[in-house]
Design a protein that fits this description.
Elements: E1 10-13, H1 19-30, E2 34-39, H2 43-49, H3 51-55, E3 60-64, H4 70-84, E4 89-92, H5 107-134, E5 140-144, H6 157-177, E6 183-189, H7 195-203, H8 205-214, H9 223-234, E7 245-248
Parallel strand pairs: 1-2, 1-4, 2-3, 4-5, 5-6, 6-7
Helix pairs in contact: 1-9, 4-5, 5-6, 7-8
The chain binds nicotinamide-adenine-dinucleotide (NAD).
Nicotinamide-adenine-dinucleotide (NAD) binds next to helix 1, helix 5 and helix 7.
Length: 258
């Protein structure tokens, strides 16, 4: 049970123009949190897409930030801290995926994916933790991992490697900051009806049905279901969960690899 303890909390969300990022912004926003959204999308485009937040009366700001640029990420977090006085929660969500085998993927594509998904996540989470310590905030980090970190995925090699490394970053960061009261966790979803997966399934509905049939519980995950798990992880009553992976894959990782 999530308590309504997010009123006036400041929540950072990277990749906030994507489906899961938008759902996070709405779920925390509906609870009265102030939302600092960033993405690579330009501000004019972002403002149009963020109109549901205005309709709900959510307090937010948008900054165009490429998470692969560590200095830009630090400036973003400093600007949000200056604007609202402190930061309480960081949802580390921005990621990219290249659908290519190891044989096909170029060195540039590999480097970019690791830079965004792993290094970009480190830049954001570590800058947020430094802000928590500076302001004596017992904050929360939530990484968006993936069930793809559990096993070899030959069509998304850089993605699954980046998410596997992210899991160890989560554990290392959780231990490093535990004594400050900062909790660091990961949500690892399975097939979410969002982002690139959604695009692929919309173009090829048969592949969507195939994906759904493969999931042991027989359902695709909706973006707001992922966001609700972040509310639970960050709830102040949840005092002991840190360094953990909240696996929500409908049993996918229990299957034998084909
Ligand atoms: N969709 C799924 O099935 C699924 C499954 C497991 C985990 N996830 C994870 O959930 C998170 C969100 O995924 P989604 O489905 O909402 O995807 P999405 O593509 O809708 O959202 C990703 C967002 O990240 C942004 N982004 C990409 N590169 C960036 C960069 N360099 N700097 C800043 N922003 C950047 C994109 O512009 C986009 O808005 C990701 O971390 C993803 O790996 C998704």
């Amino acid at each position: 049970m999530v308590s309504n303890s997010f009123k006036d909390k400041v929540v950072l969300i990277s990749g906030g123009m994507g489906d899961i990022g938008q759902a996070m912004a709405l779920e925390f926003g509906k609870m009265g949190a102030k939302i600092g959204i960033s993405d690579i999308v330009d501000t004019t485009t972002a403002v149009v897409k963020l109109s549901p937040m205005d309709n709900l009366g959510v307090t937010y700001r948008y900054d165009q930030v490429d998470v692969s640029d560590g200095s830009a990420v630090e400036r973003w977090i400093q600007n949000v801290e200056d604007h609202w006085g402190h930061v309480d929660i960081a949802i580390v969500n921005a990621a990219t995926v290249t659908l290519k085998s190891l044989h096909e993927i170029t060195a540039k594509e590999w480097e970019r994916e690791i830079q965004v998904n792993l290094n970009g996540s480190f830049f954001m989470a570590n800058a947020a933790c430094r802000s928590f310590v500076k302001k004596a905030v017992t904050g929360n980090i939530v990484f968006l991992g993936s069930w793809a970190a559990h096993a070899a995925h030959i069509n998304i090699p850089a993605y699954s490697v980046s998410k596997a490394a992210l899991r160890m970053l989560c554990k290392t960061m959780a231990l490093s900051y535990a004594e400050k009261g900062i909790r660091v966790n990961e949500i690892a979803p399975g097939y979410v009806n969002s982002g690139l997966s959604k695009e692929v399934w919309e173009k090829d509905p048969a592949s969507g049905s195939e994906a759904r049939n493969r999931v042991p519980v027989g359902k695709l995950i909706e973006a707001d279901e992922v966001a609700k798990q972040a509310l639970w992880l960050c709830d102040p009553s949840n005092r002991h969960t840190t360094g953990s992976t909240l696996l929500m894959d409908g049993g996918l990782s229990l299957l034998r690899a084909k």
